[in-house]
Design brief:
Length: about 290
Amino acid sequence: MTPELRDRLGPFRDTAIARGIPAEDVERWLDTARPCATLSKDGDGPVVGRFGGPLLLPADVPDPYFPFVASIDLAALPADATDLPLPTDGHLLLFAFPEGDGSLENMGEVVYVPAGTAVTERDKDSGDLFEVDEFRELIEKFPQEELRASTDVSLPYHCAVEIPESPYSRPLPGHPRSEDLVRVWDDTLDDIAGDGPLQLGGYSSEEAVYLDPVTTVVQCAVHTAQEGRWPGGGTVSADVADWVLLADWNPGIDGIEGATVHWAIQREDLAAQRFDRTCATVFWNP
């Protein structure tokens, strides 16, 4: 993370210390900060993609099962906007259905289209989900607009990890004041980071955060692999440290207010550009 982004966290640091959190705890927490890209229709950043638009895919890529959400032009993404080892060009296409029933079912996918690849336009308004009236009505509400990127900084929104015995959770390892620090972040982030419906990298957020939302994505991926449905086969790590948030999406659609989609990927798969091994979950409290 650049010194400029760390400097932006000054309001967080000042507020935390003013609330009596020891400086050493604050500095350890600041060391967890990650750069991220906030994507929205507003702002003066570069246009890096769009919600919706034509679905352009190589001929050998099967029709995605989930609805098309957004396309990101990686060459237009500002340098160091995230700490993810993303390709430097080409397009990243995000797909998801933003309803969830709490089961460990994958609700999205990601396709990477390298620069220069021949593509053809697909019918994005077809597939099994479109056969269900209520699903089709929801998909037709997906946003359709250009996305501009701003480089932001992200701190954890979650403060605990699960343990097998009572009280069944504890503060994040190495951060005994994690709950207090998350509360400070919640109170100061509007003065530090931008706000947009789509985020690349950084930390996951949702309507009610206690544990890292990526943990649920990992559980979903492990479940998928155990059922023999993991792309390419092979093992899937159950250690959340081996995974990273790829993107978060807050649809802002009437009828599913508060829903959030989390796409996550194993670090080794990201390095190998195995975006077909991305997994997605949806948090929604209807």
